[in-house]
Design brief:
Blueprint (H helix, E strand, L loop, with lengths): L40 H13 L12 E9 L2 E7 L9 E2 L4 H14 L25 H5 L21 H7 L6 H6 L15 H15 L6 H20 L5 E2 L13 E3 L1 H12 L3 E2 L2 E2 L5 H4 L5 E2 L6 E2 L4 E3 L5 E6 L3 E6 L4 E8 L7 H12 L15
Antiparallel strand pairs: 1-2, 1-13, 3-5, 4-5, 6-7, 8-9, 9-10, 10-11, 11-12, 12-13
């Protein structure tokens, strides 16, 4: 079975983002359907069958778990697709942390429109005005380098207390998640320490709200303004008709975790990034926004995966980058092979990332014959 290329040594240049083939229309209304070109179709079919036949295993096993949806896009066409018997192509499923990459895109749209500072300088958080947190930049929030104290663990503490992320999503911080996260003190100087934090994403989401809503707007008006912005500037242009963002009681999109959509609509978002933020002749994201999100900036200490700006990056696997969520929700963009892969399901968190990585790597490997390309290294 194939393996995703390990991020060392790093390529010196980004893999170019391919253009949409002129004979293939954008899937704003309907997805073009085709057959894999130059791929090992038997190997591809075998891996998809394995993924959907594999039942959940006990915690601590090595199973991929339950696959709910898989969409593979090559050259702008859907070339493989499968759903769990209890799911369907029309069912909207939860993103979990894939939503972070949508939050990044929404901020990019504001930058493109001139409604947010292009230099991503000091984050305009009023609560930080008079202390050291005022030095935190919006770029550092996107890079998970804010320095704010945070615990991103999805199990309770030994004494039964909720960790920061659980307290924010489901506990005392759930009413105003951005305020809960922004109230945390500095644990490190801004910009000097990487730590993955759903809290920082919700701070960014609040900044988006403040840029979109009118001053003095009620909570309901703020939420309505953000919903209209999402629909008019992202979901509508891409044809993401199933997209269902969830908001907290402060009127802020829970940009860290809660966006529902079908696998096909998540694939539209992946295709937008594969096409450098362009969609059917219209620039949705500012020039360079996608590139800035696929340059490796930090290494996650436990997994040794590279992180950029709200995207995980795998430069040695054909320039891949992915939006990633709890229990194996992924949108993988593979520029070197002109691929987008969306997998939604329930891979037991306790089983680790290896089963999911192996599955994704095998899917990618099925298309490597197209260009004769091979990864330069592999995760053991």
């Amino acid at each position: 079975m194939a393996a995703i290329a390990f991020p060392s040594p790093l390529p010196s240049d980004l893999v170019p983002l391919p253009s949409q083939p002129p004979e293939v229309g954008y899937p704003t209304l309907e997805w073009p359907i085709g057959s894999p070109v130059g791929a090992d179709e038997i190997r591809l079919r075998t891996e998809i069958n394995r993924a959907f036949a594999e039942p959940n295993e006990p915690i601590g096993g090595s199973s991929l778990g339950q696959s709910l949806a898989l969409v593979v896009v090559q050259g702008g066409r859907i070339v493989a697709e499968r759903y769990h018997p209890e799911s369907a192509s029309t069912e909207a499923l939860v993103s979990w942390s894939m939503a972070k990459s949508f939050t990044h895109a929404l901020l990019g749209i504001l930058v493109h429109q001139g409604r947010f500072t292009a230099d991503l300088g000091p984050a305009p958080v009023a609560a930080w005005a008079d202390d050291g947190r005022a030095a935190i930049t919006t770029a550092q929030l996107l890079e998970m380098r804010s320095g704010l104290r945070w615990v991103e663990e999805y199990e309770e503490e030994d004494d039964g207390a909720l960790t920061d992320v659980l307290e924010m999503l489901f506990g005392t911080g759930a009413d105003d998640m951005a305020a809960f996260a922004a109230a945390k003190p500095l644990a490190h100087p801004p910009g000097q320490h990487y730590y993955y934090s759903s809290g920082t994403t919700n701070i960014v989401s609040r900044l988006i709200t403040e840029a979109v809503a009118e001053p003095g707007a009620t909570i309901a008006e703020q939420e309505d303004a953000v919903r209209r912005f999402m629909e008019d500037e992202l979901f509508g242009p891409l044809g993401m008709s199933s997209a269902d963002p969830r908001f907290d009681r402060s009127g802020t999109f829970v940009g860290s975790s809660f966006l529902y959509a079908t696998a096909r609509d998540f694939a539209r978002f992946g295709l937008l990034h594969l096409r450098d933020g362009m969609w059917d002749g219209r620039r949705i994201l500012p020039e360079g926004w996608v590139d800035d999100a696929r340059r490796p900036l930090s290494v996650e200490p436990d997994s040794l995966n590279w992180y950029s700006r709200h995207w995980w990056v795998y430069p040695c696997t054909h320039g891949s980058f992915r939006a990633s969520g709890y229990e194996g929700q992924v949108i993988v963009v593979v520029p070197g092979l002109d691929l987008v892969i969306v997998r939604l399901g329930k891979t037991p968190f306790e089983n680790g990332a290896d089963p999911l990585f192996s599955h994704l790597a095998e899917l990618i490997a099925c298309f490597e014959e197209v260009s004769g390309a091979r990864p330069t290294g592999a995760i053991p």
